[in-house]
Amino acid sequence: MTERIVFAACCILALSVLLLLAGVCYEQYSRWRLERSALKGKTFVNIHGTPLHYVKKGKGRCTVVFQSGLGSSHYIWKEVQDAVSRHAVTISYDRNGLMFSPPSGKPVTNGNVTSELQALLEKTACPEPYILVGHSMAGIYLRPFIAKHKNSIAGIIFADAAHPLQLEKASPALLKILRIPPRWLIALTVHTGIYRILFSFIPLNPEIPVGHPLHRMEKNHFYRSYKTILEELKNDTRNFRDARQYGHFGDLPLTVITGTSDIRYARIKNAAIREEYRQLTGELQHDLLKLSRNSRFVKAEHSGHIMQVNDAGLLVEEIRRFIC
After folding, report:
1. CA–CA gap between residue 152 and residue 183 (Å, rounded)
2. Alpha-carbon span 61 to 65, nearest angstrom
3. In 3D, which of 42, 117, 57 has the Cα closest to residue 89?
4. What percent of the chain clears pLDDT 90, i.e. is strictly above it?
5. Gap between the Cα atoms of 76 and 57, Å rounded
6. C-alpha separations of 311 from 20, 86, 94, 186 in Å
7. pLDDT in tens, 173-188
8. Is beta strand 43-47 parallel, antiparallel or unpaired with respect to 50-57?
């Protein structure tokens, strides 16, 4: 009996090793295929000694600047940028270490993101004034840039932007639900092909269908970005704390757009925690209005947090209100 158990265990172990090896081979083959064409036709500019990938489109007398949230690439803005570029100069980009931009070796801080963005706008000759469109954590990353360039900004749109106090105001139970898996597990799934296979069948986010181009792009190139994404997460408390020092925007026009669809809470099964999350989101998003004496609130009723997918038209409409 004991020998059979040992034999069965050995077989299971051997099969597991073979499957992991097969997964590693599949992952390496997938990367090889992607890398053959990944950088073709892409535009880069040297920022502080490191290439930075960007997409600049359109003509006009002002520039719409798209800043992505934590871990997001330029591609999350594609549909919105394509539409807005008919009316103005537009620019989106991959922060260093994300998607097509190699890492710079610098920590992801509000100050470093601001320095990177400022150099990008100067080197790509983007005309002032700027219309800043920031999603999620971009509402934190952009604070130093706004403070330094108030006279060069025509308007600001915070698309479901992060709030400096959101971690402090959330309960331990809510933070536990929103916590990501440990670093070692993420690395294991990425390098063994598990991540690529798993998310070929299930969505990365309930708001982004598996067949959507954004899902495919983020899933395919996650191996390029995941280390920087984890670095951004590690620094979020520091960046939230730093953002508080910049304070009021004065009379700069500010539009706060918030997703109100229940899809935001789809993965939270506990009713009490779901309600806490709903109330906290509403409270913090309305509090962002206090950043400017010239602010307005807009609901994105078809979206939760990722409004670039189901409320792209609304974003375009709100951006066009600021275009000179």
Report:
1. 40
2. 13
3. 57
4. 87
5. 15
6. 40, 18, 22, 30
7. 999 998 889 999 999 9
8. antiparallel
The full 3-state SS of the chain, as one line of letters, equals CHHHHHHHHHHHHHHHHHHHHHHHHHHHHHHHHHHHHCCCCCEEEEECCEEEEEEEECCCCCEEEEECCCCCCHHHHHHHHHHHCCCCEEEEECCCCCCCCCCCCCCCCHHHHHHHHHHHHHHCCCCCCEEEEEECCHHHHCHHHHHHCHHHEEEEEEECCCCCCHHHHCCHHHHHHHCCCCHHHHHHHHHCCHHHHHCCCCCCECCECCCCHHHHHHHHCHHHHHHHHHHHHHCHHHHHHHHHHHCCCCCCCEEEEEECCHHHHCCCCCHHHHHHHHHHHHHHHHHHHHHCCCEEEEEECCCCCCHHHHCHHHHHHHHHCCCC
Cα–Cα distances in Å, from 63 out to 57, 230, 242, 292? 10, 30, 27, 21
* Residue 296: CA count within 13 A, CB half-sphere: 8
Predicted confidence (pLDDT) at residue 18 exceeds the cutoff of 90: no
What does the block give as tokens for 120? Answer: 């990008």
Reply yes or no on whether the pLDDT at 9 is more than 80: no
Prediction pTM value: 0.93
Go through the chain and tell me how many residues it has. Answer: 324
Cα→Cα distances 16→61, 109, 204, Å: 60, 40, 25
33-74 pLDDT, tens digit per residue, is 999 988 899 999 999 899 999 999 999 999 999 999 999 999
Nearest residue to 158 via CA among 263, 272, 41, 287: 287
Across residues 80-91, what is the average pLDDT? 97
Q: Which residue has the tokens 């992801």?
A: 108
